[in-house]
Amino acid sequence: MAVKVYVLLAMLMFAGIVSPIAHAQLIGGIGNLSNTVLSILGLVPCNVGIPFSTSNFFPNAVVQLRCNVTVVASTTTNSIGLFSIQTASPFGQLGDLIGNCNITVATPLVTCNPSLPTTANLASVLTFVNSTIGGLITNLVAVNFTIFEGITN
């Protein structure tokens, strides 16, 4: 449990520190995703509406990068609920990616927490972290999962 909390806190602190920097870069026109690999990290909770530090996390869950209604990439969380997706960007601009794509959990929620709705999914928006290696890799995180009705698996 302690390892999960430290990993989560490190991700959140990093995202919180670079978020204002990312916003400033976007205003300046940086955000072209042509020929860019997306690297998306996240930690999927079994509970929503409670502090992340007290949540259990969703092991072996199928996680999808969805843009509009299309599944662009998919992976499975590890034993502590952590996932990583690397894929080419389906959009040319960062704003289009952030505005049209999210991370969804395709595995039924009751698999992790029987008190969650059986007909809903977890979804998270993407948060820009930074670009590395001369803009060839764009790092994003998915850390704000909420219950979302209406996603078909």
Describe the structure.
The protein has about 150 residues and is α+β, with helices and mostly antiparallel strands. The chain has one domain (about 1-150): Immunoglobulin-like (Sandwich), CATH 2.60.40. The protein is built from two helices and nine strands. It has helices at about 1-25, 95-100; strands spanning about 35-45, 60-65, 70-75, 80-90, 100-105, 120-125, 125-130, 135-140, 145-150. A hairpin with a 4-residue loop joins strand 7 and strand 8. The longest helix is centred in the N-terminal third of the chain and has 26 residues, at about 1-25.
Give the topology, please.
Elements: H1 2-27, E1 37-43, E2 62-67, E3 70-76, E4 82-88, H2 94-100, E5 101-105, E6 120-125, E7 127-132, E8 137-142, E9 146-149
Parallel strand pairs: 1-8
Antiparallel strand pairs: 1-4, 2-3, 2-5, 5-6, 6-9, 7-8
Please give a quick description of this structure:
The protein has 153 residues and is α+β, with helices and mostly antiparallel strands. It contains 2 helices and 9 strands.
